[in-house]
Design goal:
Elements (H helix, E strand, L loop, with lengths): L4 E4 L6 E2 L5 H8 L6 H14 L5 H12 L3 H16 L1 E2 L1 H8 L6 E6 L5 H9 L1 H4 L2 E4 H4 L6 H10 L7 E5 L2 H9 L3 E4 L3 H14 L11
Parallel strand pairs: 1-4, 1-6, 4-5, 6-7
Antiparallel strand pairs: 2-3
Length: 212
C-alpha cells in the first residue's frame, strides 16, 4: 500500500513573500521607466527558473543589461533575494515538522538558480522534508504536468496518495489534472485542517521515522 504524502510549495506557503518594491526602487535610482528591469531581464529570469543559466551568468547579464558595476550588482541581487526568501511561515513549518514519521513529505517549488543553497542555510527545508524538487534543478516549472510527476517520483508515491499545497490556483488545478489531491493555500488554519483530513483518510507510515 502506498504511504500518504504531502507536498508543499515554498514561496507564499512555507515562506511569506510580500512584494518589497525593490524593482521599482532600482528603476527610480537608475532613472528607468517603470517595467524596464523586467523587460530587459525577462529571458534571464526565465533561464534562472529552469537552471539554464548559472548565478555568475545572471550577475553578468544584470551588469550588462542594466549598466551596473560590481557593487551595484551585488546590491541588486541582495534585494532580489530578500524578496524571494521572505520570512518563514513558522506556524505551518512547525506543523509540518510534527508530521514526520506519519506520512511522506516533499516540496515542489518554482525556483531560481541559487535557491537551494540560500533556503537550506536560512530555513533548513532539507531537514523538514524528505525530498525537494526545484524547477531550476529539473528544468521544468509548474504547472507543467512533468513537475508533479517528478515530485511524486522523488517520494516513490502514487499521485492519488499525495496532497499538494500551493498558493497559485493554476498550479492547484494542474496538480489535480495530474491525479493528485490539491489544496489552494489561503491561510494556515484551513491548510492545516486540509492536511489533517488527508492524513485521516489515507494509509500511515508505521513502525519507523522516515529520514530525509
Amino acid at each position: 500500500m502506498t504511504a500518504t504524502c504531502v507536498i508543499l510549495d515554498i514561496g507564499g506557503v512555507l515562506e511569506i513573500t510580500p512584494e518589497t518594491g525593490w524593482v521599482q526602487r532600482w528603476e527610480e535610482r537608475l532613472e528607468l521607466p517603470p517595467g524596464t528591469v523586467h523587460e530587459r531581464m525577462r529571458d534571464v529570469w526565465q533561464a534562472g527558473r529552469v537552471g539554464s543559466i548559472s548565478e555568475r551568468e545572471v550577475h553578468e547579464q544584470v551588469a550588462a543589461r542594466l549598466g551596473l558595476d560590481a557593487p551595484q550588482v551585488g546590491a541588486f541581487m541582495a534585494d532580489l533575494w530578500t524578496e524571494y526568501l521572505g520570512t518563514p511561515n513558522e506556524e505551518l513549518i512547525a506543523y509540518v515538522r510534527g508530521l514526520r514519521g506519519n506520512c511522506r513529505l516533499g516540496i515542489l517549488s518554482n525556483s531560481f538558480v541559487g535557491a537551494r543553497e540560500r533556503e537550506t542555510a536560512l530555513y533548513h527545508f532539507d531537514e523538514l522534508v524528505e525530498q525537494i524538487v526545484y524547477s531550476h534543478e529539473i528544468g521544468i516549472e509548474k504547472p507543467d504536468p512533468r513537475a508533479f510527476e517528478a515530485a511524486c517520483a522523488s517520494l516513490e508515491a502514487q499521485p492519488e496518495s499525495c496532497l499538494f499545497i500551493d498558493d497559485v490556483a493554476a498550479n492547484v488545478e494542474a496538480a489535480q489534472a495530474a491525479g493528485m489531491q490539491a489544496h489552494l493555500f489561503e491561510d494556515n488554519a484551513r491548510t492545516i485542517a486540509r492536511i489533517a483530513a488527508h492524513l485521516d483518510s489515507g494509509p500511515r507510515v508505521a513502525g519507523h521515522v522516515l529520514l530525509g
